[in-house]
Amino acid sequence: MRGYLFVAACGILSGTVTFGGRVLSDLGVSLFEISIYRYAIGALVLLPFVWNALPILRRKWKPLIVLGLVGAALGLSEIAAVVLGAPVALAAFLIYSQPLWTVFLSWLILGEQPTLRKILALVIALCGVIILFQPWKMQAIGSLSGALLGLLAGMLLSLYIILIRKTHFDEIPSLLGTFGWLIFSLFWFIVFYPFVFLVTQDPALVSLRTDVSPTAWLLIFVFAMTAEVLPAAALFKGSQTVEASLSGIVLLLEPVSAALLAVVFLHEAITGNILLGGLLVLAANVVTASRRPAISGV
């Protein structure tokens, strides 16, 4: 149960990702400023706590540099989805199509067997995603590019959950894993920057300044803690005992959290398709979590 509580805490806190991205974007902070500064701040905060364990990181950097690559791509796509115009609640729910991919990929990569209950949950979740995406009514999703990036982020999030689960088998401590993930994600963001700049010079995406307002710096710090450090540390800890496929479903608490934040603070409406699609996704969560399969590989 303790592991599930850690994963649930990650899901609730992660609801601040899309919400915080919209707030910082409205303050004029670019996508890359949001991304790079939150990882840098998070790594600096954790450094004193992992200093004595850094020799382990030097020996086991390979899985973490791959995790950092996935994390950087995920960080770019999930915030870009909102910056490019997808409603916060819709972007969050599309990101959380990830159980569809997590059950399949965790079977291929980790050997977690798909059960009939998981398959039923996948069908319900797929129906929810289709209702949310509304392919027959594209104008309802705001920005098509933003919505597609939200869906891509869901696939990347699935891989992220699986790779974190794998760090347990690689015997990487949870806090050190969080630090390594932040450092290598920051590395990949810096690598990606010139390539993204070749594609677009939109300052909302690629501006990289240090003279942002004090209010923005404070919010970036809060964002780094609530959207990165605390949820990642909780997921690393919870993944020691919870299967990746189950973590993916428990983490569906994020869109609920994001939707509530958007309604309360951004005054976004909960439309019928978001409500129905979200309920179906959460129903898939209930179906899968109602019976706890055995943990494999622990």
Characterization of the model:
The structure is a single chain. This protein has 298 residues and is mainly alpha-helical. The chain has one domain. It contains 15 helices and no strands. Helix 1 runs antiparallel to helix 12 and helix 7 runs parallel beside helix 9. The chain is globular. The two termini are 15 Å apart. The C terminus is likely disordered.
Task: Write a brief structural summary.
The chain contains 15 helices and no strands. By secondary structure, the protein is mainly alpha-helical.
Helicity, as a percent range: over 70%
Low-pLDDT segments? 293-298
Measured distance between first and last alpha carbons: 15 Å
Number of separate domains: 1
What do the pLDDT scores average to? 81
Counting copies of identical and different chains, the oligomeric state is single chain
The number of helical segments is 15
The percent range for strand residues is: under 5%
N-to-C order of helices and strands: HHHHHHHHHHHHHHH
Work out the number of β strands: 0
Major sheet summary line: none
Could you say which overall geometry the principal axes of the C-alpha atoms support?
globular
Supply the helix-strand structural class: mainly alpha
Rg is: 18 Å
Task: Explain the layout of strands and helices.
Layout: H1 2-14, H2 16-26, H3 31-50, H4 54-59, H5 61-83, H6 88-95, H7 98-110, H8 116-133, H9 144-169, H10 174-199, H11 203-206, H12 214-238, H13 244-250, H14 253-265, H15 272-289
